[in-house]
Each structure stands twice: as structure tokens, then as C-alpha cells.
Amino acid sequence: GSARRLRVTLTPTPTDMLQILSPAGHPWLQMSGEAPDKPLDSAVLSRLKQFSAMNKLKKMALRVIAENLSEEEIAGLKEMFKMMDTDNSGQINYEELKAGLERVGANMKECEISQLMQAADIDNSGTIDYGEFIAATLHLNKVEREDHLYAAFQYFDKDGSGYITADELQQACDEFGIEDVRLDDMIGEVDQDNDGRIDYNEFVAMMHKSTAGFGKKSHQYNLSVGLRDALNIKSNS
């Protein structure tokens, strides 16, 4: 009905976010001058590596939150994106990510860089767009604001029931271009009371929980630990 249409209208889609977060079209970037040619900040790289260990739901939630952030809240990240995006395409490709990592003296194998690239590339496009970069490098104190968390939960809870169901999670994955998902596993990582769905408290607990608490059985978590060791960067708490 009309309420459903209104809810959909008020809920940003990944396409909306791409337009809002586009470096070429966003006024935040148009107002700023040339990005400084400086090495990548080690704390930001640490957050990027932590992002690689997160489950898919948390990655999608961070992408939703990124759309709601002010210029002040992402200070420095947009300049860093522009610095890495050397061809000004609005996308960071493998070679650009590799060059950015080399600037900080990272001793990483090409396969590790490739896996890090894949982890940050939420929609599996083969590149990291501006929204994905912001989502992957946000500081946790920006992520854990109550209004941001509630807005992100509402994005997934399409029918406003107070729960994220398997069908709603599948719809979100489709919207983000995420394929070959195991919905039961995604829900099971977060579903504390084993009712087969995710309520708001469970969602908040996932967002607040440290990276190491999620995906610890997966290859991605082992990769994340290995990347931190390779870069000799301590994980942010």
C-alpha cells in the first residue's frame, strides 16, 4: 500500500548511495582542492583490514551508514580515496590499491592484496568505489552512533516488523549485488536466540562486537590477521 511505497521511498538504495557518494558528483569533493600526495594513514589501513574479516551483513550495514555521514565525520577519507584513485575514475582498481599499499612500505604478496581487494569490494564489481572505501575505512566511533545503527537496521527490515528475516536479507544481498550467499550462516552468526531472524538488539550487538568475534572460522579472518602482521599495524580496539 501507500505506507509500503513511502517506506521504500524513504529508504536509500545502493543506487541512491552510489549517486550520493560518487566522488564526481558529490559537493563535498567538488568543494575540496587537490588531494595531498601523502602516504596512506596506517590507522585507516588497519580499519580496511579489519573490514575484510567482517561478515557480509555488517559490510552492507556499514555501507548504509556511510551514506548518512557528514563531511566532518569522514574527514580525510575522501582525500585519501582521491589520492589512491590516480586515474580519477571514481573507482580504485587492483593496481591502484597495490600502489597505495606500496607507499606505506607494505610487504604483501599479490595474492594477499587481491584478497583484500575482494573483501572491500562489496558488490563484486572488481573495483572499490567511493562508498565501499568509506564503509571499509570508517572509525568505529562513527559506526556505533544509535541513530546510524537504527537507520541501518530499518534499511534491512523492509516490512518494519522489528526483525530482519531471511527473505529480507536475500533482498538486501540482491540490491548490493552480492551473490552465492548462505543466508542461514549469515543469520546464524548474529541470531543469539536461534529464532531464525535478527532483531534490533542482535543487530546492534553485531555492530558493536569486535571484528575478531565474527568470521573467526573463515579464511577471511585468518587473512585479516595475516595482513595486520604483514603491515605491522596493531588492530584498533
From TrEMBL:
<keyword id="KW-0808">Transferase</keyword>
<keyword id="KW-0547">Nucleotide-binding</keyword>
<dbReference type="GO" id="GO:0005509">
    <property type="term" value="F:calcium ion binding"/>
</dbReference>
<feature type="domain" description="EF-hand">
    <location>
        <begin position="112"/>
        <end position="143"/>
    </location>
</feature>
<keyword id="KW-0106">Calcium</keyword>
<keyword id="KW-0677">Repeat</keyword>
<dbReference type="InterPro" id="IPR011992">
    <property type="entry name" value="EF-hand-dom_pair"/>
</dbReference>
<feature type="domain" description="EF-hand">
    <location>
        <begin position="144"/>
        <end position="179"/>
    </location>
</feature>
<feature type="domain" description="EF-hand">
    <location>
        <begin position="72"/>
        <end position="107"/>
    </location>
</feature>
<dbReference type="InterPro" id="IPR050205">
    <property type="entry name" value="CDPK_Ser/Thr_kinases"/>
</dbReference>
<dbReference type="Pfam" id="PF13499">
    <property type="entry name" value="EF-hand_7"/>
</dbReference>
<dbReference type="InterPro" id="IPR002048">
    <property type="entry name" value="EF_hand_dom"/>
</dbReference>
<dbReference type="GO" id="GO:0004674">
    <property type="term" value="F:protein serine/threonine kinase activity"/>
</dbReference>
<feature type="domain" description="EF-hand">
    <location>
        <begin position="182"/>
        <end position="213"/>
    </location>
</feature>
<keyword id="KW-0418">Kinase</keyword>
<dbReference type="GO" id="GO:0005524">
    <property type="term" value="F:ATP binding"/>
</dbReference>
<keyword id="KW-0479">Metal-binding</keyword>
<keyword id="KW-0067">ATP-binding</keyword>
<dbReference type="InterPro" id="IPR018247">
    <property type="entry name" value="EF_Hand_1_Ca_BS"/>
</dbReference>
<protein>
    <recommendedName>
        <fullName>non-specific serine/threonine protein kinase</fullName>
        <ecNumber>2.7.11.1</ecNumber>
    </recommendedName>
</protein>
<keyword id="KW-0723">Serine/threonine-protein kinase</keyword>
